[in-house]
Every structure is written in structure tokens, then in C-alpha cells.
Amino acid sequence: MRILVVGATGLIGASVCARLVSEGHQVVGIVRSPRANAARDYQTLVLGMATALRPEDWLPHLTGIDAVVNCAGVLQDSPREKTGQVHRDAASALFRACARAGVAKVIHFSAMGVDQAQPSSFSATKYAGDQALMALDLEWIILRPSVVLGRPVFGASALFRGLASLPVLPSMPDTGLLQVVQLEDVVSTVLFFLNPGSPSRMALELAGPEQLSMDEIVGIFRRWLGWAPAARLVLPGWVARLLYRLGDLAAMLGWRPPMRTNAAREITRGAVGDPSHWMSLTGMQPQSLAQFLALNPATVQEKWFAGLYFAKPAIFVVLPFFWIMTGIVSLTTGYGNGIGLMQSTGAGMLSAPAVIAGALADVIVGALIAWRPTARKGLYAGIALSLFYLVVGTFLRPDLWNEPLGPFLKVLPIIVLHFVALAILEER
Fold it and tell me: What is the rounded CA–CA span in Å between residue 54 and residue 31?
């Protein structure tokens, strides 16, 4: 079969594509940026869901397609992502295009519980997309998984591992139970419904065999990583709300933290359901989290990832703060000292312009690092600027290498931290 997979680089989409290729299917993956259009074992097409809001935007990509798997989803509105555009408008346009192009089978990923309550724009727009598909004369299957966990990590699955690495477990208040489902089981379900003659026109809940609290899930991951149980610290409600708001702020800068206000609304409801229909229909025996992890022993990669999970946001707060505050200090309270330092090198009339130029360059580097789409450029600019300061400074004031506070020596770990940030920048 020739299958179009929308959201081909996501947690579910990437695994679906890999499995389909291994099963001998021809895959066309829809990605939203040229950078995601890397060398893969299948054809990729660049198409942003935010702009593909009419059936005409999808029709050219549906020629020769036998089935569509829509894995696209976003947690919350941000400058980079809009829930209404992705879950409702673009999805509806895709489904209508499938009907016009004669693509009979459409497998659509929704989320557990959206048909019962819509506490946020995430679930409301997901349900709107479901309804748009159900209204069409297609062989449609709507899959509503609980929180999906697997060897690959993103979003909540990454958060659980990060929490498992902390010496003290911060327990969020007002969180519901989760019936986590394994990624392998979800992908196998997609393959089942792509088989000729498989049933259609139904919505299924995909849930694991047990209901767990967030703290229990983190505890299972902690044991898997080989670490002793951690003390539990229940966070006050105001602290939890502050953390969610900080997540919203990070999202406004283009980052995708799993802790945002939409997540708070959804997690309060929890994600539990009845997998019996799914199991009886497909013959699936969903794995528990403990069973899956027992079959996949933790490696050093998992331990590194868990340990670096909360170090990453700290790094991407500290580096922009360092660069921007350096520039601000150079233009305000430290301006006189900067002028004096430059004059000591013999810069003369160029002292003031050099201080101002350096300060502005620092602020620009910090802003570039803080804004996710330009973070990589900002990190390289920070490395280049740091090396420039060292080379020029060594030529003009070599004695600063011998200062007790080590103003030049301290630049070296700063450069190294930029390389660490580059190494852990990728989100998927």
C-alpha cells in the first residue's frame, strides 16, 4: 500500500513510518519544515498544517495514496503552533480532500476522553476534528490513546524520565489517574486497521491494563533506571500554577515544554478508559509499563537523557540571562568601567563605540538563544563572540589571563556550556 502519514516526525508518526517501511509499504511522510526533511527510508513532503486549511492544499499529495494516517497534534496555542488549525481546520481539510480523491481509509489519532469532556482547547479541537471525519463517507478509524510511552520520548514521556532522575520527587497536585499505553501496541493497532477487510467507522480507546498515578509512573521509571526511591514533595497549588505559567512563557518563545496550562487542565481529568473493545477487536494484549520496561533494560543513554532533562531548561535560561545581562550592565552601571578598560588598551576615541557595540552584540546573542527558532544560530554566535573576545583580549590585555578572578579563564567553561547546549538542543 502507498500510505500518507501526517505528522511523520512526531512520537507516534515516526514509529508508524518506520514500522510501515519495515512491512514493505510505500510511505509518504508529511513534515512541516525543510529541516525535518532529512534523508529517510521513505518519501517526505514539506507541508505546514497551519497553512493547509483547504482541501485543495492536500489534493496534490493524495494522488496514488491508498490510506492516510493522521498523527499530527499540538498541546497548546503558541506562536509556532495553533490547536484549532492543526486539530480542526487542517484535519477537516485533509479528510474532505481524501473523500474527493477517493482515499477510502483514514486512521486518525485523537485523544482519550475528548468525547466526554473538553477542558481545554486541545481536547475541544481534537473532538472537532473527530466529528469532521465521522461526518464523511469514508472508512474511518479514530484512535484515542491514553498517554503514549515507549523507547522514544517526547512530551509527557520525556517528563516522566526527567522527574525520575530528581533526588526529590515534586508531586503535582490535582492530577488524575493515567492508563498509559505502550507505543508498540499503538503502532501495531495502526497496522491492523490498514489490513484489507479490517473493520472501520469506529472510535476506539487505547489504554493500558492498569491505572496509575503520576507518582507511581515516575517510581516505575526510577526503578527501571536503577535508582533508589526518592522522597516525595507535594507542591503547593500556587507553585504548580507558577510552573505551568512558566511553561506557557517558554512556549511563547517557541519551545515545547510539556508543563503548560492545557496540560494542567487535561491531567486533572486524567486519561483512563475501557480497552476491552480494542482488545477484542484486534486481539491486542496491551503491555503494562512495568512489563515493557522489564523487556527493555535501561542503558546509559536513558540515564543521560533523564539526568539532562531538567538541566536543559536551566541551561537555556542561564545562557540568555548571561548574555543579555552582560550587555545591559555594559550599557548602564558598568559603562564607565568598560570605557576605562578599553582606554587601557590604547583604544582612545574608539573606546565608547567598542563598549556599545560589544554590549549590543551580547544582547543580540542572548535574544537569539532564547528564541527557539534561532537558538542554534545564537549558540554558534555566542561561541564565535566568546572566541573573538579571548583572541582580541589576549592581544590587547594578556595580563588578564593572570588575574586572580580569572576573567579570561572563565570564558572557557562558558564556551563548553554552549557546546553542551548544542548537543541537547533537539526536541525530537
Answer: 17
Sequence-ordered alpha helix ranges (H) in 172-298: 183-194, 214-224, 237-252, 261-269, 276-282, 289-295
Q: What is the pLDDT of residue 34?
A: 67
Q: Which carries the bigger pLDDT value, residue 104 or residue 321?
A: 321
Contacts by residues 79-82 (CB-CB < 8 Å, ≥ 24 positions apart): 79/252, 79/254, 80/254, 80/372, 80/373, 81/50, 81/256, 82/50
CA distance 116 to 268: 14
Q: What is the DSSP letter of 115?
A: T
Burial class (CB in 10 A: 0-12, 13-18, 19+), 102: exposed
- pLDDT tens by residue, 313-347: 999 999 999 999 999 999 999 999 999 999 998 88
CA-derived radius of gyration, the chain = 25
pLDDT band at residue 284 using 50, 70 and 90 as cut-offs: very high
CB 288 within 8 A of CB 210: yes
3-state SS class at 79: coil
What is the rounded distance in angstroms from the CA atom of residue 175 to the CA atom of residue 114? 17
**φ, ψ (nearest 5 deg) of residue 234:** -80, 120
